[in-house]
């Protein structure tokens, strides 16, 4: 919960140093609790109706004027808390707060663990220290480890989606994808090269090196040549069909007419030829990678899920290692979303075609 603490006159006096030209750091040693609702005042010297003073506390400054406070009571005492007071080591009441509704209720068999974010009026949080800090769980920030609140599905949906850059290589449209598939049917080398990129989101330089050795159970695994990022991806049905329908020569799926592995430049030139044969002068191998990312974004995949497929990363090294720990799970989730989105699109197209036929 979040509250605003009222600093007492005695508390402010404790902050002033002996020379009266600066401040002292003060130490909160205990927290008093009361079942009665008080109106916090500057002249309060004792907490009215106080039933217990708890010394097992922890705290820290989490912002310029905010402290995070945890109060712990493992006793068999029973009480209701509507008001609380913070006491210094010499017993001075430093600050207090009260409200009509119960803040928390403790029963005999329960452990009380009260976590509070308290705003201090006109007092800097760095002037305050606390007792035992071994069980502190502050709100997490970019620099402070702690507790976070997870977004609901509705909150996550409205966050900014993965951005597919509009610059550089042209991103294939669905119409262009369909045109290539019509010109180069399942079972051709051109189609397998295409499927290795559109169904994995990988670069042409990596697709040219894929082969049977890249397959582990039902996954395709590789270390990207450009970034050295390792990805493990579920093999989608469209890619599996293409691999099984195309004869494989040696250790590479897509080879030259002489049975050799393509060079990076050679693969790009050959794919350029296949695009031209399909009447797609603006399309390229790298544009397929962008199209794959677009499809995932349109399917509602998260930024992290798309990165799990493409290997993109703009995070620090630590964040990248953390993401690598669940990369397999994220890529599986993204695959499920993509297939569901494509199935829905096909169903809508079929319905439109049927309706159009009925109107003729």
Provide an overview of this structure.
By secondary structure, the chain is an alpha+beta fold. Helices cover 34% and strands 21% of the residues. The protein has helices at 9-15, 153-157, 174-183, 189-198, 204-207, 237-245, 264-277, 285-298, 303-310, 317-325, 327-358; strands at residues 2-7, 26-34, 52-54, 57-63, 66-73, 79-81, 83-88, 93-98, 104-106, 112-120, 128-130, 215-216, 219-223, 230-234. Strands 1, 2, 3, 4, 5, 7, 8, 10 and 11 form a nine-stranded mixed sheet that branches. It has a three-stranded antiparallel sheet with strand order 12-13-14. β4 (57-63) and β5 form a beta hairpin. The chain is elongated and about 90 Å long. The N and C termini lie far apart (65 Å).
Task: Give keywords.
alpha+beta, 360 residues, nine-stranded mixed beta sheet, 11 helices, 34% helix
Number of helices: 11
The run of helices and strands is: EHEEEEEEEEEEHHHHEEEHHHHHH
Work out the helicity level. Answer: 25-40%
Distance between the termini: 65 Å
Can you tell me the overall shape? Answer: elongated
Cα-atom radius of gyration: 32 Å
In round numbers, the mean pLDDT is 82
Poorly predicted ranges = 162-166, 315-325
The number of distinct β-strands equals 14
Percentage of β-strand residues? 15-25%
Topology (elements, then pairings):
Blueprint: E1 2-7, H1 9-15, E2 26-34, E3 52-54, E4 57-63, E5 66-73, E6 79-81, E7 83-88, E8 93-98, E9 104-106, E10 112-120, E11 128-130, H2 153-157, H3 174-183, H4 189-198, H5 204-207, E12 215-216, E13 219-223, E14 230-234, H6 237-245, H7 264-277, H8 285-298, H9 303-310, H10 317-325, H11 327-358
Helix pairs in contact: 4-6, 8-9, 9-11
């Amino acid at each position: 919960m979040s509250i605003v603490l009222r600093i007492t006159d005695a508390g402010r006096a404790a902050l002033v140093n002996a020379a009266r030209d600066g401040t002292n750091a003060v130490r909160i040693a205990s927290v008093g609790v009361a079942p009665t609702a008080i109106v916090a005042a500057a002249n309060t010297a004792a907490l009215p109706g106080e039933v217990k003073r708890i010394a097992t506390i922890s705290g820290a400054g989490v912002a310029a004027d905010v402290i995070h406070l945890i109060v712990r009571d493992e006793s068999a005492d029973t009480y209701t808390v509507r008001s609380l007071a913070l006491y210094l080591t010499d017993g001075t009441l430093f600050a207090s707060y009260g409200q009509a509704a119960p803040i928390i209720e403790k029963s005999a068999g329960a452990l009380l663990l009260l976590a509070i974010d308290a705003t201090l009026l006109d007092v800097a949080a760095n002037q305050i220290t606390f007792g035992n800090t071994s069980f502190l769980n502050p709100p997490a920030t970019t620099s402070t480890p702690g507790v976070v609140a997870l977004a609901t599905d509705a909150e996550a949906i409205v966050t900014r989606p993965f951005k597919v850059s509009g610059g550089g290589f042209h991103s294939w449209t669905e119409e262009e994808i369909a045109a290539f598939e019509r010109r180069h049917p399942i079972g051709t080398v051109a189609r397998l090269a295409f499927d290795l990129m559109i169904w994995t989101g990988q670069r042409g330089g990596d697709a040219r090196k894929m082969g049977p050795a890249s397959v582990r159970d039902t996954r395709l695994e590789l270390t990207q040549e450009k970034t050295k990022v390792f990805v493990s991806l579920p093999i989608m049905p469209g890619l599996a069909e293409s691999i099984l329908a195309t004869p494989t020569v040696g250790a590479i799926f897509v080879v030259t007419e002489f049975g050799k592995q393509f060079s990076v430049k050679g693969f790009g030139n050959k794919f350029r030829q296949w695009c031209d044969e399909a009447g797609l002068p603006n399309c390229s191998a790298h544009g397929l990678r962008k199209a794959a990312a677009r499809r995932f974004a349109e399917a509602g995949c998260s930024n992290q899920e798309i990165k799990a497929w493409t290997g993109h990363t703009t995070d620090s090294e630590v964040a990248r290692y953390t993401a690598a720990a669940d990369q397999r799970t994220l890529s599986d989730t993204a695959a499920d979303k993509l297939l569901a989105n494509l199935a829905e699109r096909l169903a809508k197209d079929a319905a439109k075609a049927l309706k159009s036929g009925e109107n003729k």
